[in-house]
Design a protein that fits this description.
By secondary structure, the protein is mainly α. The chain has one domain. 70% of the residues lie in helices and 0% in strands. The model has no long low-confidence stretch (mean pLDDT 79). It comes from Mesorhizobium japonicum. This is DUF768 domain-containing protein.
């Protein structure tokens, strides 16, 4: 596992607003994947690091989605 890849993906997903619920077409997915490859390379992260870290990345994404969409807001 590459902690660097996990951290990169978490920040990248947030920055590119990937975690919002929306319907996307194939062209949008291809564009997002292309940006991911270029941005990862620019950050010095190789595609195999992301692939090898996929379980940790998935776990982090699930935690963020649960916190964002399933946690009740608190009232003060």
């Amino acid at each position: 596992m590459s902690a660097r890849a996990v951290q990169f993906m978490q920040v990248w997903l947030e920055r590119n607003d990937v975690l919002k619920v929306q319907i996307v077409d194939d062209e949008a997915i291809l564009d997002l994947a292309t940006r991911l490859v270029f941005d990862a390379e620019a950050a010095g992260i190789r595609d195999h690091e992301i692939f090898e870290s996929r379980d940790d990345i998935r776990r982090g994404v699930v935690e963020k989605v649960v916190r964002r969409f399933l946690t009740r807001p608190t009232t003060h």
